[in-house]
Design brief:
Blueprint (H helix, E strand, L loop, with lengths): L6 E7 L3 H12 L6 E7 L6 H6 L5 E5 L6 H11 L4 E4 L4 E3 L3 H10 L4 E7 L4 H11 L9 E2 L8 E4 H7 L9 H11 L4 E11 L5 H23 L3 H10 L3 H15 L3 H31 L2
Parallel strand pairs: 1-2, 1-4, 2-3, 6-9
Antiparallel strand pairs: 4-8, 5-9, 6-8, 7-9
Helix pairs in contact: 5-11, 8-11, 9-11, 10-11
């Protein structure tokens, strides 16, 4: 009987049928074959994702009857996993053929927490949206430590994941919170240059702006809760909120420059600036609540 796989790839799904097959096709082409896929689908009343998964030998699909937020689905998948290494990606990601091989090699070299590069679909709008969301992790730059890693291209040992308690499941920003938790415990978050996934997201303008506002709001709410911030701390953050888009824009430009993609950053500036402004507005609303509702 075959033993446990080296890697468990965990994918949360919700209304993901349009991209899931491409995602699974890319995983079926991996050069390293010692892995399983745990698919957690929480689309109510719709079992199509598990039907798609039946065509792939390495997939175990669990259909949850109620909607799960992505990080709650990831935690459920991790609880079902048997691999030594947990690798997380999304149903709208495709993985380079050596993705798992590169992650395993990095873990074998002593890296504890690893993220990979995330590429974008073609087209100016898609690239601009992608830079807004994933500008810290675009392909082309050197490997090195990062303050946080993307949950769509992320891996760590199952043992460490269990020790830290998994992703904070009640926030969309659970990946950020997990990154902070791992750093607080002394773990270096390593961005691996060679392990690449491609995000197939094609968000419409209104959807993009609403999502950026919601992520900014959720990140601020999570920070308030994590640090038990007082009304005065929230007020200070509220007053500083107008600076957030400029600081984030400069950091994004720095990482794009390291990746040799400064011209792409400049071309994307209108979209990136708008997205960061929506994020900062979301943060400001959350901090304002902390000032007036405590």
């Amino acid at each position: 009987m075959r033993g446990s796989p080296k890697v468990s790839v965990i994918i949360p799904c919700y209304q993901s049928n349009s991209t899931l097959r491409d995602c699974l096709d890319s995983l079926s082409r991996q050069t390293l074959k010692d892995f399983e896929i745990i698919l957690i689908d929480s689309t109510p009343g719709n079992n199509v994702a598990c039907c798609i998964a039946e065509s792939y030998d390495q997939v175990r699909c669990h259909h949850h009857p109620m909607r799960l937020l992505p990080h709650a689905a990831r935690n459920l998948g991790a609880a079902m996993a048997s691999g030594e290494i947990l690798a997380f990606t999304d149903p709208d990601m495709t993985a380079d053929a050596r993705w798992i091989e590169q992650l395993v090699a990095a873990h074998s070299s002593g890296k504890t927490v690893i993220g990979g590069r995330v590429d974008s679909p073609p087209g100016w709008w898609n690239r601009a949206v992608h830079i807004t969301k994933y500008g810290w992790w675009v392909p082309g730059g050197p490997a090195g430590p990062r303050p946080q890693l993307p949950s769509g291209n992320f891996s760590l040992s199952r043992r460490l994941f269990q020790e830290v308690g998994g992703f904070p499941a009640l926030h969309w920003s659970g990946d950020t919170e997990l990154s902070y938790c791992l750093r607080d415990q002394g773990h270096e978050l390593w961005l691996l240059a060679e392990a690449t996934t491609t995000h197939m997201d094609r968000a419409l303008p209104g959807q993009f702006m609403r999502e950026r506002f919601a992520r900014g709001f959720d990140t601020a709410q999570s920070r308030k809760s994590r640090h038990s911030w007082t009304r005065w701390h929230c007020l200070a953050r509220l007053l500083a909120a107008p600076l957030v888009p400029f600081l984030m824009l400069l950091r994004c430009g720095r990482y794009l420059g390291e990746s040799g993609r400064t011209l792409e950053w400049l071309a994307a500036l209108p979209v990136v600036s708008a997205g960061l402004a929506a994020w900062a507005l979301g943060e400001a609303v959350a901090y304002a609540e902390g000032v007036w509702r405590r």
